[in-house]
Amino acid sequence: MPNRSRLRIEATSSLHPIRIETTGLEGTFEVALVDDQPDLTMQPTGSIEIDAERLMTGNMLYDRELERRLEMRKYPRIRGEIVAVQADGDDHYHVRGNLSLHGVTWPVEGRVRVSVRDDGTVEAEGEQTFDMRDFKLDPPRLLILKVHPEVRVRGRLVAVREE
């Protein structure tokens, strides 16, 4: 559900934090559920995507620089794909996947919490820190502002459960 899924990106700089918060995540996730819990005997599959142009701070100067660095016209979509999922405690899972950004695909992994809601939706939440240099992106410098290369990304995905 793109309107209920959220993506929050936080970068630090020499002056102040830079934040992006957006909706619009799209994708599919296939997993068997037994008693409202993922059944990992069959490996889950899935992918998520977002239009790069949705990554805006609200500051025109930063947004122009972000558009230029991400080369949004050349690389209009950001895509994540699931490779493997393992149970990692109550409602938590270790997920390995690939993230494609700026023409570069990089292996990623992290811990995700998954819950099935009474309204039939499935929610997955996780957080990961990325180094933008892994995606061939140099940290921006604007006048006296220097952006640090590590970026924290938090996502909350809401999916409709199909029977």
Please characterize this protein's 3D structure.
Strands 1, 2, 3, 6, 7, 8, 9, 10, 11 and 12 form a ten-stranded antiparallel sheet that branches. Helices cover 7% and strands 58% of the residues. The longest helix is centred in the middle third of the chain and has 11 residues, at 60-70. With 163 residues, it is mainly beta. It has a single domain (6-160), classed as Lipid/polyisoprenoid-binding, YceI-like (Lipocalin, Beta Barrel), CATH 2.40.128. The model has no long low-confidence stretch (mean pLDDT 91). The protein contains one helix and twelve strands. It is elongated and about 55 Å long. A hairpin with a 2-residue loop joins strand 8 and strand 9 (104-116). The protein has one helix at 60-70, and strands at residues 6-13, 18-22, 26-30, 32-34, 37-39, 45-51, 77-87, 92-101, 104-116, 121-131, 141-142, 145-160. 17% of the residues are buried.
How would a textbook summarize the main sheet? Answer: 10 strands, antiparallel
CATH arch. level architecture: Beta Barrel
CATH topology: Lipocalin
Tell me the radius of gyration.
Answer: 17 Å
CATH superfamily: Lipid/polyisoprenoid-binding, YceI-like
- The figure for the number of domains is 1
Uncertain regions spanning at least 5 consecutive residues: none
Quick one: how many beta strands? 12
Helix segment tally: 1
**Class per helix and strand makeup:** mainly beta
Mean pLDDT: 91
Distance between the termini: 16 Å
Strand content: over 45%
**Helix-residue proportion:** under 10%
CATH class: Mainly Beta
Q: Could you state the order of secondary-structure elements as H and E?
A: EEEEEEHEEEEEE
Shape type = elongated
